Amino acid sequence: MSRLITWARLYLRDLGNEPTVITCAGSALLILSHHQASTSYFRTLFGATYDKHPAIGALTYFYWFGASFFLYLVLPLLISVATRGSFHRKYGLGIGDWRAGLLISALFLIVMLPAVYVASKMDSFKGIYPLAGAGAYTLKVEGKPDEISWKLFAIYELGYLFYFIGWEFFFRGWMLNGLLPKLGRTGALLLPIAPFAVMHLGKAELEALGSIIAGLALGILALRTRSFWYGAMIHGVVAMWMDWLSARSYLLRP
Fold it and tell me: Would you say residue 173 lies in a domain?
């Protein structure tokens, strides 16, 4: 047993404290997000309290967006403060090389927005977005017809954007930059791709497979620009574009 403890200490010392913290704590946060940040957990917390709320279809997702932002951005920063993390390159919180960031982001979107438009026509994507379904833009009042609400849709999409800010910080800000000093560019770039792809299980197969390429591309973008913000912008815009394409026929209904 003493030899095992000695070996473990030497291994962890050689690996470095921050990669160990990020890998273990990051895995724990992803598990917590699957359970405590889920839309179903909203009912565990609040029961039937909000069942009669006109925006109940969106409220569970507002909870998911907020809880995810906390688990993916706030808690990682608190963990790094508590464990004396290196804050290498400030975990990409700065704007970095904004000229390259805006140019590359524009090129990404020129390719991705038409591709998403084509994907939105495929049967495998129909009915998936918005994730809240009609709840993302519909108010329900007992005894009255459902009301289409642009305001609710706008708030829903804003919450969705905050979700992606947290999501991108977790993978391309905290993980990538925290692993970079010890694992180098290749290790820091590749390691987050596996959990990123796994988090897409349950999505359309084409989207889940595409997450591998997207994870690599967004990681390279974060390394090049020294910022996670451009990946967050791309991810958020693409996701909101898909929501709009899926919901516009209802929102524009006379």
Answer: yes
For residue 71, what are the domain limits? 16-251
Residue 126 falls within a domain, yes or no?
Answer: yes
Tally the domains of the chain: 1
How far apart CA 4 and CA 11 sit, in angstroms, is 10
pTM above threshold 0.85:
yes
**Helical pair 229-251 and 205-225, crossing angle rounded to 10 deg:** 140
Q: Which long-range contacts (CB under 8 A, 24 or more apart) does 84-87 make?
A: 84/17, 85/18, 85/21, 85/22, 85/178, 86/18, 86/178, 86/181
* 92-128 tens-digit pLDDT: 999 999 999 999 999 999 999 999 999 999 888 888 8
What would the pLDDT profile of 197-209 be if each residue is shown by its tens digit?
A: 999 988 888 899 9
pLDDT at 187 over 70: yes
Q: Is the confidence at residue 167, as pLDDT, over 70?
A: yes
Q: How would DSSP label each residue in 191-228?
A: TTHHHHHHTTTTS-HHHHHHHHHHHHHHHHHHHHHT-S
Strand pairing class (147-148; 138-139): antiparallel
Q: CA-CA distance, 70 to 76, in Å (whole number)?
A: 9
Is 8 within the bounds of a domain? no
Locus of tokens 């017809």: 145
d(CA 252, CA 254): 6
Q: Is 2 inside a domain boundary?
A: no
Q: Which two tokens stand for residue 32?
A: 């917590």
Residue 197, classified by CB atoms within 10 Å of its CB into exposed (0-12), middle (13-18) or buried (19+), is middle
